[in-house]
Amino acid sequence: MSRLIRAVIDSSALRANFAAVRAAAPGRRIMAVVKANAYGHGLVPTALALPDADAYAVARIEEAVALRAAGVRRAIVLLEGVFDAAQLQEAAQLELDLVVHEPLQLSLLEQYRPAYRFVAWLKVDTGMNRLGFRPEEFAAALARLQDLPEGVREIRLLTHLACADERDAAMTAEQIARFTHLAQGRGLATSIANSAAILGTPAAQADWIRPGLALYGVSPFPGETAGELGLRPAMTLETVVIATRRVPAGESVGYGGTWRAARESRIAIIAAGYGDGLPWGLPTGTSVVIAGQRLPLVGRVSMDMVAVDASGAGPGIEVGARVVLWGPELPVERMAASAGTIPYELLCSVSQRVPLVLG
Ligand SMILES: Cc1ncc(COP(=O)(O)O)c(C=O)c1O
């Protein structure tokens, strides 16, 4: 038991999911979204496991630095662009592609003395009201970019959908219509679709797709499993039992004494807590798998451990037994639903002390 909790990353699942995404959107170019440490899967190993991506998308310049340092030569798109001249210079040195969503970023490019000619992705806000130029601002922003041929070698257009995870949402149709209207006849490459849109809204596929969650083998649709979508979970978050105990009827378990044994109970203490990224608020009853058996968490999540009610479980519930918090045998979507959150948050919350192991 040299290791307690760890996240095992199945790179064959990453590759299979990439192939599934490609099959769902044949002929489109693929920008693999690897920001936030590849949704907890490890930025560099994930990018290296997906060498056929046409580009990688990150949110922070530090992520791009790490990819270039690891030898990634393909395009890297900085999804939020740069915010000052120093970052613009750094982006030029790293040969990054820039999203441009703000007048400040146009000004930075206008003041830039070209050392590198960027690919600029002009972002249009078609209704999400987060980043991007509004439709009425679009033509002027595009004209400013087109006026910078020495600093910008190609302009592409993108937008982001607010409700793609709701199949057939009216909002998605409206956003696509607005974007298509603006992009029409310009001869510029376009991108609209995240995972949910790639799998659920073929009309959103455009020239480039931007899958994140699907690459990690997780369903972007509430209530639909990854398996139903032909995806394989790439991360198994696993730990071990570090103690077992008998708790007499009527006694409580854990901080606050929030769970009380209704009968004499067998409790397994597992090495996983909020210090590893489990939500503190995970409710009693949330499932984990120990020695192949699905069993409920009980009581409050501590920093380093949490209790499981193994009363009535079969053999194998002993110190050192393997525990799966999520993975192919227990989808992360289930724990997310139990915790009242989304799988994205659970994956991104796996903490730094959890070693990532390539399986
Ligand atoms: C602009 C943009 N495109 C694509 C994605 C990928 O989304 P998903 O993980 O839902 O596929 C994200 C993720 O948040 C994003 O911010």
**Which molecules are bound besides the chains?**
pyridoxal-5'-phosphate
Helix proportion: 25-40%
Helices and strands, in N-to-C order? EHEHHEHEHEHEHEHEHEEEEEEEEEHHE
Radius of gyration: 23 Å
Q: What is the CATH fold-level name of the largest domain? A: TIM Barrel
Beta-strand share of residues: 15-25%
Measure the end-to-end span. 18 Å
CATH class of the largest domain: Alpha Beta
Mean pLDDT: 97
- Which descriptor suits the 3D outline? elongated
Strand order of the largest sheet: 8-7-6-5-4-3-2-9
What number of structural domains do the residues give?
2
Summed up, the helix count is: 11
CATH architecture identity of the largest domain? Alpha-Beta Barrel
Low-confidence stretches: none
Largest sheet: 8 strands, parallel
What is the subunit organization of this protein? single chain
Please give the number of β-strands.
Answer: 18
Write the layout of secondary structure elements.
Blueprint: E1 6-9, H1 11-24, E2 29-33, H2 35-39, H3 43-49, E3 55-58, H4 61-69, E4 75-78, H5 85-94, E5 97-100, H6 103-111, E6 118-123, H7 135-146, E7 152-158, H8 170-183, E8 190-191, H9 195-200, E9 208-209, E10 235-247, E11 252-253, E12 259-260, E13 265-270, E14 287-290, E15 293-298, E16 306-309, E17 322-326, H10 332-339, H11 343-349, E18 356-358
Parallel strand pairs: 1-18, 2-3, 2-9, 3-4, 4-5, 5-6, 6-7, 7-8
Antiparallel strand pairs: 1-10, 10-13, 10-17, 11-12, 13-16, 14-15, 14-17, 15-16
Helix pairs in contact: 4-5, 10-11
The structure holds pyridoxal-5'-phosphate.
